[in-house]
Specification:
Length: 660
């Protein structure tokens, strides 16, 4: 029995340092390290990752290439060899290209829970060079990421660890206790030491219960709130004129636009009290230093881009920068110390990428079913489970069920998407190959060496895509996918762990600065672009259904092993008005689709709000669907982002005695 050190690569901001126990070539246990490469792990990890042995060695693990032998979706497959599998894959691509061109071949690559090489090594480059369609990563963080780029440009995020110096902490659209587990205790410790805490979330999350001020906004109205606060900062003399003169563009125009959002008007639209808006502005304008944690809650609706931009404007107006404990953070992603472009240069040089058909992940269903933007003959899903996680689930399932679509899924486990595939290929986990782990919640880049042998015949993302690419004419030597080579290219001889910015050295506008000024007004296509509020009423469907993360599911990974409860949470008033109590069966409909679920009356919700968890699998959902059947596929106002939380439904009791 041996113990080894590695790191967690799940789509989670924490990137824990792990100690794993291996017996007979199998990973049998894992835990956090107290003084490991990433100190914020602090000796503990989340409960779901403790289920990793089941994920790696359990019955759903795919261990060999599988070709469909029964009807689509029947789950009947036969094992085949890798050569046969890759030959078949390449032959289907050749047929598709001959019939409808490269744009009919769609690689749907995500792998947000893979290591750095698995995520952005050679695989995306292979499909780019071949000229296949280009899938834009829009399902998560595209909107808020674009809002950051437009506002702050190249400025790195603040360091969450610097919260230890904050006197005011604002958590906006994030649920750290669940989806950023190691941040919760840091905030709690600071709060106990006297710092003030403000939370903006339509639900009374665990952190909101401890906040000095909780603004339970209506989903999709954050931009209105943030602009109203900006106007109050101006009215009450809390603008930081020195900071603005030196660093901020567009302030007058921006503040003029904010005047429309008087506290009274904003309170009405956001569904909160005027006094609470005033109090937010007073606290943010006077307590220093303040750190703003912006999550993803405010981005997942039609106004997500405007909302994120308006929230990001607040520290620039109040000048909450320049001292430890001040600033704003969302995703820590910058490439400091890890040169992904070097991989590209070494393999394809500086040749311009070919023009490719763009694919928006959020429109997958329409693309497959209605040929939106052109026909699709071959779909290659790598590191994603769109049958469970995409919007408009029923349409996605219809598309994946098309007899004339050849679907290849490369994954660790037999997901809902893999079940609908024609060819299923086994993927390695982070524990089986030498990898590198970065994160979007800390500045540490860590070593993640192989700690167990490969399970079955699993292959890496790069090995699979290069395997197909070589059959289609790419040069095997030029495209050598060995992790050692890619690592050398991206890291040089840098020794890991590596901290991208020094400890106590990431203070925004003291240690790090953007290339240009902070922009409160964007100039897109020659037009001044200010944040806007677009109302979204669906009178027959008065309940807003949001689908937050749960402590049990990191997206849909682990959802098959320890699923979250799929119950529909309803506000007590909404439940009572419909004659529903906890444990009752309810019908939920958006007018197009109807499912049934068990009700849980939940006083942490604001009126008009319901929740179901994200990351559920179809089998644990409702009649073959999850909450994603109600998630719309219209796009956010920035970056073509997802609008999961624009789902609108009506709920009614299921009368058990009805016969028909
Ligand atoms: N355990 C676990 N951890 C995860 C994940 C997971 O699935 N499970 N997923 C990972 C991924 S992929 C991501 S993107 C992050 C997401 O991390 P978070 O952003 O923290 O998680 P969410 O649950 O998407 O949303 C956060 C909060 O936003 C609130 N919210 C919903 N709509 C609105 C709104 O319109 N305005 C405001 N202000 N708040 C709103 C929700 O009630 C929720 O409490 O977490 C990562 N970490
Ligand atoms: N209703 C609703 N739906 C949502 C959201 C929401 O808020 N509400 N949130 C959205 C968000 S934020 C996100 S990030 C998406 C996530 O949605 P997905 O991208 O579908 O992410 P996962 O569900 O984690 O699925 C990733 C798959 O990759 C596999 N995998 C892991 N590592 C590797 C690897 O190295 N190689 C390969 N080939 N496979 C690997 C895992 O086994 C898993 O099946 O879900 C979105 N869906
Ligand atoms: S999912 Fe997040 S909290 Fe859990 S072990 Fe991985 S990095 Fe740590
Ligand atoms: Mo995400």
């Amino acid at each position: 029995m041996g113990k080894q050190i590695t790191a967690c690569s799940l789509d989670c901001p924490d990137s824990c340092s792990l100690e794993v126990t291996v017996e007979d070539g199998k990973l049998i246990a894992l835990d956090g390290i107290a003084d490991g490469p990433n100190p914020s792990t602090n000796g503990w990890i989340c409960a779901k990752v403790k289920n990793t042995p089941q994920l790696l060695h359990g019955p759903d693990r795919i261990t060999a290439p599988l070709r469909r032998s029964g009807a689509k979706g029947s789950g009947e497959f036969v094992e085949i060899g890798w050569d046969e599998a890759l030959d078949l894959f390449a032959a289907k691509v050749i047929d598709a290209v001959a019939a409808h061109g490269w744009e009919s071949v769609v690689p749907y690559l995500y792998s947000s829970s893979a290591g750095k090489l698995g995520r952005a090594g050679l695989s995306p480059l292979v499909w780019e060079q071949l000229g296949a369609a280009r899938t834009d990563i829009t399902i998560c963080a595209a909107t808020v990421g674009e809002a950051w780029d437009r506002t702050y440009g190249s400025l790195p995020s603040a360091d969450p660890q610097d919260l230890q110096y904050s006197e005011l902490i604002v958590v906006w659209g994030a649920n750290p206790n669940v989806s950023h587990p190691h941040l919760g205790p840091v905030i709690e410790e600071r709060r106990r030491a006297g710092a003030k805490l403000i939370v903006v979330d339509p639900r009374r999350t665990p952190i909101a219960t401890r906040a000095d001020l909780h603004l339970a906004v209506r989903p999709g109205t954050d931009g209105v709130l943030a602009m109203a606060i900006a106007a109050l900062l101006q009215r009450d003399g809390h603008l930081d004129k020195d900071f603005i003169d030196r660093w901020v563009d567009g302030v007058d125009e921006y503040l003029a636009a904010c005047q429309q959002w008087t506290p009274a008007r904003a309170a009405e639209i956001c569904g909160i009290d005027v006094a609470d808006i005033e109090l937010f502005a007073e606290m943010y304008g006077t307590i220093r230093p303040a750190m703003l944690r912006v999550g993803w809650g405010q981005e997942r609706n039609r106004n997500g881009g405007s909302a994120s931009r308006a929230v990001f404007a607040l520290p620039a107006l109040a000048g909450q920068f320049g001292t430890p404990g001040s600033g704003v953070f969302n995703s820590i992603s910058g490439g400091i110390g890890y040169d992904g472009a070097a991989i590209r240069n070494a393999v394809v040089g500086d040749a311009a990428p070919p023009v490719r058909r763009p694919i928006n992940m959020n429109r997958l269903g329409r693309i497959l079913v209605a040929d939106e933007g052109g026909r699709v003959d071959v779909l290659f899903v790598q590191g994603s489970n769109p049958a469970a996680t995409c919007p408009e689930q029923a349409i996605v399932l219809e598309g994946l069920s098309r007899e004339d679509l050849f679907t290849v899924v490369h994954d660790l486990t037999m997901t809902d998407t893999a079940r609908l595939a024609d060819l299923v290929l086994p993927a390695t986990s982070i524990y089986e190959v030498d990898e590198i782990v970065g994160s979007y919640g800390s500045f540490v880049i860590q070593e993640a060496p192989a700690v167990i042998p490969r399970v079955g015949e699993s292959r890496t993302n790069d090995e699979v895509s290069v395997g197909v690419g070589v059959r289609l004419g790419l040069d095997a030597q030029q495209w050598d996918p060995s992790p050692q080579r890619l690592r050398r290219l991206a890291l040089g001889d840098r020794v890991l762990p590596f901290r991208q910015l020094p400890e106590h050295g990431a203070v925004q506008f003291r240690d790090v600065e953007p290339d240009g000024k902070v922009q409160l007004v964007c100039h897109a296509d020659g037009v001044d672009d200010l944040p806007e509020y677009r109302p979204f009423e669906a009178p027959d469907f008065p309940i807003t259904l949001i689908t937050p993360a749960t402590s049990r599911t990191t997206s849909s990974m682990f959802g098959n092993i320890a699923p979250a409860s799929a119950d529909l949470h309803l506000h007590p008033g909404d439940a009572a008005a419909r004659g529903l109590s906890t444990g009752d069966r309810a019908q939920i409909t958006n007018g197009r689709y109807t499912i049934e679920a068990i009700v849980a009356v939940d006083a942490t919700l604001r009126p008009g709000l319901a929740t179901m968890p994200k990351g559920m699998w179809r089998g644990d959902g409702h009649q073959g669907f999850t909450a994603n059947v109600f998630a719309p596929d219209h796009l956010a106002d920035l970056a073509g982002g997802a609008t999961f939380n624009d789902a609108r439904v009506e709920v009614s009791p299921v009368l058990s005695s009805v016969s028909g």
